[in-house]
Amino acid sequence: MSPAVTALSAPGKVLLTGGYLVLDRNYTGTVFALDARIHVVVQQLRRGHRRGTSGSTTDPKPTGLTSEAQSNTTAAVEDQDAEDTVVVRSPQFVDAVWEYGVQRCDNGGGVKVVQKGNGPKNPFVETSLSYALTYISYVADSKDFGSLSVTILADNDYYSETATSKGSATKGQGARFANFGVPLQEAHKTGLGSSAALVTALVSSLVIHRTMQAADLGAGRDKLHNLAQAAHCAAQGKVGSGFDVASAVYGSCLYKRFSPAILESVGDVGSAGFEERLFAIVEDSDPEHPWDTEFVDFGMQLPRGMQMVLCDVECGSQTPSMVRKVLEWRKNNRAEADVLWASLQNNNERLRQELKRLAQNPDSVTDNDFAEISNFIERSRQHLRNMTRQTGVPIEPKVQTELLDRVTALDGVIGGVVPGAGGYDAIALFIRDDPTVIPRMNELFANYESAVEDDFGGKIGNVRLLGVRHGSEGVKNEVLGQYAGWI
Ligand SMILES: Nc1ncnc2c1ncn2[C@@H]1O[C@H](COP(=O)(O)OP(=O)(O)OP(=O)(O)O)[C@@H](O)[C@H]1O
Ligand SMILES: C[C@@](O)(CCOP(=O)(O)O)CC(=O)O
């Protein structure tokens, strides 16, 4: 019997180095997991014994009941001729409720959730539900889920502040999770990988809830990774490198991507044979397409005396179109691209090795050692600026160059980059873990105004130090106490 409530969380990410390169298996990316996490709480509404497929009339509110109270409710609803429903809420946002009916598809097409009502869609939630329920029903050889209530809670740094979230912080309410007071579509994301953390936490919590125990999380990690990658790719409508899902599952690591062919033939939920194809992907049982992702050093730490911080610039980027343009340029300028890719890979690798050496030999950390880190970061940035010029894509646009240079000039700041795809997302900085550094940065940001004209017409807004730090840990079980007032 599944427990009444299951709670898990998965971390956000920063791709410190390897943006664009990591899309190609010949190169790697260094990804740091963050301590900003997305939490998912799954509650069983009633133990469903499906009697039909007519529309649900059941109150979708979570009961928050003990298992005993729940089985009483079960008895009360068992006779109802109602389809199972899944109600997903993101209570930090206005009207963020998605209600789905659960449909069993013929010919091995799996389990598909179908949104009720005409509200905005959430493809990441919808696809994760369909994928997880398909896998669960195939493994358990049962299509009985009962109705489920799912609550999503995101650490605040995933989104820029809003008037409401600022207010609730100053009044000391909702200390851990802010109320943003706006619809999710209006929240500005800071680029920490909310969708990958969400998909990972969501599919993991459903699979754990229905087919495993919380204690199985460690052993089930590879399968959860494969399922989350499949769901995230389907929801995005493209096969990315998957570094964000990988770090959400395993934590910080050096990442080499999987061969895209592994996920290319899964097909759509509902198509004949979908459940078997998905099962083979999750269980890694297709001899023609074995999972070939490579991780090195997962859980890697920063050197003693060093910290990573992020600064939101209240702007945001269009990653998919940037990726398209860079890949197009690479295709048409292969020789130049190969030189640039090789220089970046080489320098990125030296930076990673130096970070690792210092992390493993804390006694050898001296001021001078961080100077090496500074040099490698500067060199990576030079290559990224070349890439910006050559591709015509704002990977390190001028307003970000200016900001990075001005922060790096502060005493105690080791260096920084525009991580991932670059652009106008939050910047990542390595700083000395010394209490004087943050106040110096805040002083610079308090009246920060860009003095350059951007080469791509971009404009950064308020610069704000986020509270998020390096986290290193992947998906994990959570205790319920921290969600008081939200579930
Ligand atoms: N708190 C949340 N509740 C429900 N859905 C969410 C939540 N946060 C994010 N999402 C889903 O994730 C989508 C944002 O994902 P997207 O991949 O565009 O950005 P990201 O992963 O945060 O950033 P990036 O890819 O730049 O790192 C939202 O449109 C929504 O569907
Ligand atoms: C450009 C790319 O290599 C990194 C994108 O990173 P981010 O979403 O900007 O953190 C794309 C990918 O790896 O899927």
From TrEMBL:
<dbReference type="InterPro" id="IPR014721">
    <property type="entry name" value="Ribsml_uS5_D2-typ_fold_subgr"/>
</dbReference>
<dbReference type="GO" id="GO:0004631">
    <property type="term" value="F:phosphomevalonate kinase activity"/>
</dbReference>
<keyword id="KW-0752">Steroid biosynthesis</keyword>
<dbReference type="GO" id="GO:0006696">
    <property type="term" value="P:ergosterol biosynthetic process"/>
</dbReference>
<feature type="region of interest" description="Disordered">
    <location>
        <begin position="45"/>
        <end position="82"/>
    </location>
</feature>
<keyword id="KW-0418">Kinase</keyword>
<dbReference type="GO" id="GO:0005777">
    <property type="term" value="C:peroxisome"/>
</dbReference>
<keyword id="KW-0808">Transferase</keyword>
<comment type="similarity">
    <text>Belongs to the GHMP kinase family. Mevalonate kinase subfamily.</text>
</comment>
<feature type="compositionally biased region" description="Polar residues">
    <location>
        <begin position="64"/>
        <end position="75"/>
    </location>
</feature>
<dbReference type="InterPro" id="IPR020568">
    <property type="entry name" value="Ribosomal_Su5_D2-typ_SF"/>
</dbReference>
<keyword id="KW-1207">Sterol metabolism</keyword>
<keyword id="KW-0756">Sterol biosynthesis</keyword>
<dbReference type="InterPro" id="IPR016005">
    <property type="entry name" value="Erg8"/>
</dbReference>
<dbReference type="InterPro" id="IPR035102">
    <property type="entry name" value="Phosphomevalonate_kinase"/>
</dbReference>
<dbReference type="InterPro" id="IPR036554">
    <property type="entry name" value="GHMP_kinase_C_sf"/>
</dbReference>
<keyword id="KW-0753">Steroid metabolism</keyword>
<keyword id="KW-0443">Lipid metabolism</keyword>
<dbReference type="Pfam" id="PF00288">
    <property type="entry name" value="GHMP_kinases_N"/>
</dbReference>
<comment type="pathway">
    <text>Isoprenoid biosynthesis; isopentenyl diphosphate biosynthesis via mevalonate pathway; isopentenyl diphosphate from (R)-mevalonate: step 2/3.</text>
</comment>
<keyword id="KW-0444">Lipid biosynthesis</keyword>
<protein>
    <recommendedName>
        <fullName>Phosphomevalonate kinase</fullName>
        <ecNumber>2.7.4.2</ecNumber>
    </recommendedName>
</protein>
<dbReference type="GO" id="GO:0019287">
    <property type="term" value="P:isopentenyl diphosphate biosynthetic process, mevalonate pathway"/>
</dbReference>
<dbReference type="GO" id="GO:0010142">
    <property type="term" value="P:farnesyl diphosphate biosynthetic process, mevalonate pathway"/>
</dbReference>
<keyword id="KW-0547">Nucleotide-binding</keyword>
<feature type="domain" description="GHMP kinase N-terminal">
    <location>
        <begin position="188"/>
        <end position="251"/>
    </location>
</feature>
<dbReference type="InterPro" id="IPR006204">
    <property type="entry name" value="GHMP_kinase_N_dom"/>
</dbReference>
<dbReference type="GO" id="GO:0005524">
    <property type="term" value="F:ATP binding"/>
</dbReference>
<keyword id="KW-0067">ATP-binding</keyword>
